[in-house]
Amino acid sequence: MHFYFVHPQIKLTSIVKAKLSLFGRPNRAKITEKLSVYMPNKQFVFTDMGRSAFKLVIEKKGLQNSEMLIPAYICDIFQPILTHYKIKPIFLDIDLKTFHIKTEDIQNKITPNTKSILVCHTYGLLFDIEALRKQLRGLNHRLIIIEDCAHAFFAKKNGVFAGNLGDVSFFSLYKQFPALRGGMAVCPSDWQVNLPATKFNFRDFISFLNYFAPLSFLFKKFGSDIAPKILRKEKLDEIGGINNASLNLFANFFEDAEKSLENRRKLALILQAELKALGFGVQEGEGNVFCYLSVLAPKEMTQKRDEIVKRLRKYGVFCTRIWHTPIALNQEDLPNTFEAAKRIINIPLQNHYSEKDAKRIINAVKKAITIL
Ligand SMILES: Cc1ncc(COP(=O)(O)O)c(C=O)c1O
User: Fold this and answer.
1) Cis (ω within 30 of 0) for the bond into 191?
2) Rounded distance between C-alpha atoms, residue 332 and residue 3, angstroms
3) Which end of the chain is more exposed for a tag (fewer CB within 10 A), N or C?
């Protein structure tokens, strides 16, 4: 049995629902109604990718030519966007227990041109935006809080879900739902937005096949050839709307994803406990939806992280290393970011895995780290 770090898979029993989702017009009013339970009084703008929703936020908030506080440990898709809009990033280091930004330095780092702060519920753990707001109130400097919920659908605190906490927020749908692609900006209802539709394409078809476990090996085999070509094509400056198939898939698998969240959390906590006992660093578990189950290789094995990942493949566990290249180039002031980049390992976790699967993964890890 092989375990792949891939985005959510679809059980073969749901193949008909999945296939039907590829056709037909989504019922946007119904989807909005469903989402309003989680994020009341908001407008949901569906984009082709999460990054497009971020671009929309920049344009609507007029953040071009300003400075933005941003986690140094985050996805590298942000760099070209910031360059495009002439936004100067001010990087903030992270805490190694949460992977969230440390906010103590904000006061020393901002200038009169700092207009916004990007916060991220990294890997699915809710960042405390309320505490940040309190801190900012004391600063006498207005900052727009942009909430990156790419990993955090269903994450909540005191009954308030991710997406409600920032001044504006955005999601990446395909990370937690088998939606192929798609992003969502959550914004005030008075924003006037009209995006050009995008089409279901060859890349979407390959991703669709990848949703069925027996075929995921195809992606591992050919993905590295296909992905760079696709990425080049996707460097469109235009902000595209979501395609119908992705929106249907998101809507049709929404309840399944929510229902299986408990199993996902249970397994993640089991895996975390076992990995911690083996010397790995684990993220705080409380309230975590574990979009990515991410651990730090034992400190003394930092130099061997890639060797561990390679060996795990031999034992059928295909991990990844998100984010092994920080977008901040200069290590100065950012020690934890660069340490996380060297030690991070993301372990495969699917909502339908069982405790037996978790045991198999742990056994593979045990084998991979012996005699290292
Ligand atoms: C934290 C975070 N934010 C935003 C994005 C962008 O999302 P998308 O790939 O849908 O553009 C990603 C992943 O790519 C991410 O990991």
Assistant:
1) no
2) 37
3) N
CA 304 centroid distance within chain: 26
Residues in a beta bridge with 88: 67
Which atom of ligand 1 approaches the CA of 174 most closely? 10
Quote the pLDDT of residue 234. Answer: 56
* Residue 65 pLDDT exceeds 80: yes
pLDDT tens-place string over residues 193-210 = 999 988 898 888 888 888
Q: 45, 47, 51: which to mutate for ligand 1, most atoms within 8 A of CB? A: 51
Task: Give the number of the atom of ligand 1 that is nearest the alpha carbon of residue 183.
Answer: 10
Range of the domain at 266: 261-369
Beta bridge partners of 120: 148
H or E element, residue 78: helix 78-84
Nearest-angstrom CA–CA distance, 225 and 269: 35
pLDDT digits (tens, 9 = 90+) for 147-184: 999 999 999 999 999 999 999 999 999 999 999 999 99
CATH (domain of 336)? 3.90.1150.10
State in Å: Cα 338 to ligand 1 middle: 20
235 pLDDT more than 60:
no
- 59 and 148 in a single domain? The answer is yes
Give the Cβ contact number of residue 168 at 10 Å.
22
> Does one domain contain both 25 and 172?
yes
pLDDT at residue 2 tops 90: no
pLDDT at 192: 95
CA–centroid distance, residue 54 to ligand 1 (Å): 9
